[in-house]
Records
---
Amino acid sequence: MLNDWLYVGIFALVSMFLPAAAISIAALLSPKKPNSVKNATYECGMETVGPAWAQMKVQYYVFALIFLVFDVEAVLLFPWAVAYNQLPLYAVIEAVLFILILLGGLLYAWRKGALEWL
Amino acid sequence: MSGLQVVFLIVAIVTLFSGLMVVASRKMMHSALWLILSLLGVAILFGTLQAGFFAIVQILVYIGAISILIIFTLMLTRRVMDDDHPGVIKGWWLPALMAVILFGLLAGFMATWDNFQAMLNELPANPENLAGFGAALVDPAGYVIPFEVASVLLLAALVGAIYIAAERKEKAG
Amino acid sequence: MSFWRDPIVFLINWAKGLLDGIGWGPGWATTVGFVIGAFVLAAGAMFFVVFLIWYERKLIGRFQDRFGPNRLGPFGLFQPLADMLKIFTKELITPVGVDWVAYNLAPVLSVSAVLMMWAVTPFSKTFFGVNISVGILFLIAIGGLGELGILLAGWGSNNKYALVGALRAIAQLISYEVPFVLSALVPVMLSGSMSLVDIVEAQQPWYIVVAPAAAFIFFIASVAETGRAPFDLAEAESEIVAGYNVEYSGLKFGMFFVGEFLHAFTASFIFVTVFLGGWRGPFADEIPVLGLAYFFIKTFIVYFALILFRGTNPRFRIDQMMDLNWKVLTPLALVVIMAVALVNSLFASSADWLRISALLAVNLVIVFAAERLVRRGVKTTRPEVGSRQRPVASPDNVFIQPGSGVKG
């Protein structure tokens, strides 16, 4: 079984090496003529004003947080799903209870307006 | 020195170095990226212990969700693009010395334990039993109470975060 | 005869025999074998993208009532090759102030995240990279690494538009990961294993017949995860100045698009593996190369459907996308999991056809009920043309300069 993970690791390294090699070949083949106008940051054709920062909305953070909660919930449900075929009915009811509690959380978020994009 | 030990050494050194760079980086965004590298190192270590499920969960939850949350938090609270201050404080040698002494004391105490020099145990042939793990999670004689309490904990986290973020939205807009 | 039944595995075994014959020792032989195998599979995937780009451009052209590329080579087959040659020789302009590691790692990470998905899918009964025990969760985790590539691109470009574009792209991708993960629970429940090889082996009727609601949610979520139309707000040329890849040029820009085309094909074959039975078909068990053929036929049909979506639908706005995800797909996915779990458990001891028909019936009921609810919740009334009172300028309400002498 360790061989499987070794293959995955080797595949990850190979799959990072191939695009990097392609980009290096392109870097060798391409002309290099930098000048200050070409290298300036793109701002729809105008000169940049002020440092490059962006106003970040709280809404992104709320979405990331709701995603985190549901991600952890799904991860807790995966082992149950693997064992599902051998489980009696009360075990299924327990998992349904788990899901219902989190469905309640989603409905709370909906009513509180946390799911609006603004 | 088997291949597994070589892999372990390399991954352990990379993880520890990334952990050090999290606190010693100049820019906050670099700290977040070093954190992602050290979490990846921990996931690979789980893989060498043949706990495949936990390695994947580490990548999925820690790198895929928590790191993104940390980066969003960084961007929310600082002007992250022009953030450039020295990474170390003035008297950094004193805490470093104390950390090294503490590590030496701990290592010395643990060396008096019998099995400190024991060789690597061979793991059983098929250590991963996901079906058994899943059955134990919902078994009344197993871990069903922590399973349900975990969902209530997640609900509490969700409600608390939405409440705080809603206040912030009212203050902002 | 054994070569014709399964040519690929025959060649693999022959190569392994060669490696063992060199006599290095088992550890080294396996490792070198793995490196060569990984190289062949990854390089094969990247060369296959050339064909995929041609296929998509021809099809999009036909949907838009024009020929696609048809100048270079028969039916324009050499067009993507010419494009590749051109893009290799474009200058790689690096703007000032970029973070070198993040800027250069981003395209590599985007492509490698998609390539890694090819390592765990079973292309036929005997031809797959590895059979890890957590196959389907691996696919989802690797998708998360791809999102990290987008974040690095947006932040490393030292450009505020790129950063905002990257943040919106990530908000879209992480939102659609929730119904993706939740609907992937249904095949795991029905087959009892997370490994993709086991999921394909267990699909006696295909899972799209057993759980069509879960297939529907999974398909929409995976189209949104690949960032293709109609969900391509984050990177379309007319939106937010092309988004997170605005500061990239040359092959680095090309790599993002290679990654996107490959991701579309990969999403198709993941859907085929998990819901459409993978390589299963008549006689695929005895003759593995037939399994490979069925796999590719099914994948191309689903890929055709994806391109059809791109050619027909207008783009979603970002708030419409988020509403669709959090208010429709996520509750629906949770309800489908609960319903499938309960119904399957109640009918576990009865005959197979009874259990499958019950599951199919429950799924169809859920889909119709959801459609009714969504229809009620959507505002479809509009004001009639000409019904609004528009203000008309008249001398009474036009502003007159004081002291100009004009009387109102």
---
Amino acid sequence: MSLLRTERLKKHFGETRAVDGVDFTVNEGEFLSLVGTNGAGKTTLVNLISAFLNPDSGRIFIGDREITYASVDERIRAGIARSFQLVNLFDDLSVLDNVALAIFAREGKTKRIFALAERDTAVTREATDLLGQFGLGGKARARAGGLAQGERKLLDVAVAYALRPKLLFLDEPTSGVSTRDKSQIMDTVSSVVRGGRITAVVIEHDMDVVFKYSDRVVVMHEGRFLADGPPEEIRQNRDVATYLLGTNVSD
Amino acid sequence: MAIRQAAPAVRVRKKKTMEIVAVQVLNSLFYAAVLFLIAAGLSLIFGVMGIINMAHGSFYALGAYVTAWSVAAAAAAIPPAALFIFLPLGAVAVAVIGLAIEPTLIRPFYRRPEEYQLLVTFGLLLVLDDVIRLVWGGTPLTANRLVDFLGLVQIGALPYPVYNLMMIGVGIAAALGLWAFVYRTRFGVLLRATAQDRRMAAALGIDVGRVYALAFGLGCFMAGLGGAIVVPSQAAVLGMGVEVLVVAFVVVVIGGLGSLEGALVGALIVSALRTITIQFWEETELAALYLIAAIVLLIRPTGLFGRKS
Amino acid sequence: MNAPQVPSIGRRAALVAAALVVLVLVPTFASIYQTQLLTYGLTLAIAALGFNLLLGYTGLLSFGHSAYFGGGAYAVALMMRYLGVSSMELFILGGIAFSAALAALFGIVCVRHTRIFFAILTLALSQVLWTLAYKFFWITGGTDGLRVPFSKLTLLGGLVGFPGADAYPRFIAFYYYYVLAAFCVCVALMWLIVHSPFGKTLQAIRDNETRARFLGVRIWRYRWLAFLVSGIFTGLAGSLWVPLNGLTTPDVLYWPQSGKIVFFAVLGGFRNFSGPIFGAVIFNYLEVYAVAVTEYWQITLGVILIALVTFLPAGVVGTAAQLSAWLKRRRGAAA
């Protein structure tokens, strides 16, 4: 049984067919890249799955459970987590607090009112460990809003990861970051995610990143899937080359 | 706020009940006209600029005070018919004040978090509320001579001020005029474009600052006009600004914030509700209005015509 | 609120202890009038503390906190008048219960909306309460209000009473310590709340509502809880205030009273814990001396508010903290 499955998922914005009858399957343990040109529908697809948007038609399943119209917190409890393209952090809280909060939320401890957050050693330890894994250990007490862009991207992923989801969606985790930092970020993300045996779907534009880190590449174009397979196969795919890479494969 | 009505005490006959109902309906329409002006002004400013002016009611109060004061001051020199000029003039004076305030107090805060915008207009409310007391003192100001001048008309056996009927007309004219302005004129197009997408409008060469200033001025004009047309019917008193604002909020809750149709429909509904509630249990008038507002909020959080912004 | 440079726990504890010692010693060197004035300041500080849970920590600006302050005050007055209660402890319980009920009710209406609508609704609902207070004059005493004379008051479960003609100085002396104790409890409690997981969640909601929702936090439920706690603290403040004032009138529910509470937080700085406390105490003295100078105190208040928001958005305490951090950096750079 697949971890995630969508059936003929559709979302139109007036004339624009953002997601046009998509059957998307994600299997447990995969590290999958979702690629396509701007407007291909990648973010909309992730928005539909993570409850940011409601679909016009179609269905979504986690395992055998239908979550098509489930609320945000129901989907999180079902095991879905996501990061955002434009970094979404709690800027006035410390880096540690950002991650700790996700852990509190996961553990259902957010209503605790007569206990000091810092005194919860289990949470603090887990948060510190996680920051270490993501290379942010030294910045634990710093204000999240004051970090450099690359660090903010990592923290964004770390917060989503801290929910220990079954399925993690990362929306352009390396956008807005210098090329050198990109590999650093993806190295970290990929090793932590795989190490935690979490299934990940990464929306990416940078094809080098995609080919280097993914088990499987799904190419979207104008709301539909154009190609779906391991990186080598996608690299050879003529349609992909034309639509995505803009090259005319001639031979 | 009770609209004064000239209904002598007589024994109730069935025909009399019809006349009383008619008078109440007319009173309700008058008050609806006033509410519409205030709510439409509030909605206009919010729709175009995305801010709520907490001092909006104070502009209504200023309109009332300026009009009443100028009518009283000029009454000796000018024939009563000509005194009516002070109604729109009062509104214009308020608009001018609004045009002075927007670039100095409001504009610096567009880019800042919402709290600061609310705080600065709340500070403005504190100031204007007390400035009115400073300038005109605590005694209510009246402009009854305008009502008296137009005399009474008979609704069956009940006399009714012609003034009220005329102001219902003003309300209708304002609604139509505003609609035409927003949807039929060039500036209206600029307004709507800027309301929809500020950056796009600026990119198209629209002077967004000027549009904002004029929209704010127009909103204040409407609030001032509301005050101006109400003051001949009832005195300008301290505290009238916040009092009307609280009722105007119910109008935008029910009608939807940022919508002109919502302001019109909301004003009619709220005014009718108010008239009915005053008949049955006067003390709970405001509480009843807010109970209904709360229910509307539960069912339709953005109001009847509101859009999620 | 995590500033990049947090003064050490030891230094903070020392400052708090020193402040506490000074506060405890005040009646020994200050006049009755000054002690009474400070007592007022402490009640306002509790109100500000409650208010700022919503503004500073949850990001919700309420223009209607007079409803809870006044609610707490009227609860005491009504209990004394109609139930013959005289125990301050019972008054406190009644005040808390009443303001909790109000906050719970108003909160349901207010918290589900955008911050702008929230601000409007809080103002409006407090005014609804105000009209009820003066219209139902046969219950509430209308504009004359209800008296709460201290001579009928007992503290500590009836142990301390204030009968007799010269009881006033004695009352002030005891009541100051009573309010001081309540103030300390409130400060400790609120400090705990904002540093708890619940408090962190509120701050997350303030910083980034979307992200908080995507952590599975049910936004409006937390806002409602914050609203409830905030209303309770401010209601307690009102209950403590009214025996000092001897009287409660609808003025305490009128919107400028909400404006003052907002002012405390903005003056002191709402982005830190102690700002509103200082703001309330400073305002308390400011008001006394300003009212003596001008009849148009509200204009001054409005102008200062606008000036604060324009030039000093971090408030007195916030700006002082920024200044000291800046000085420290300069000293560090020069070394």
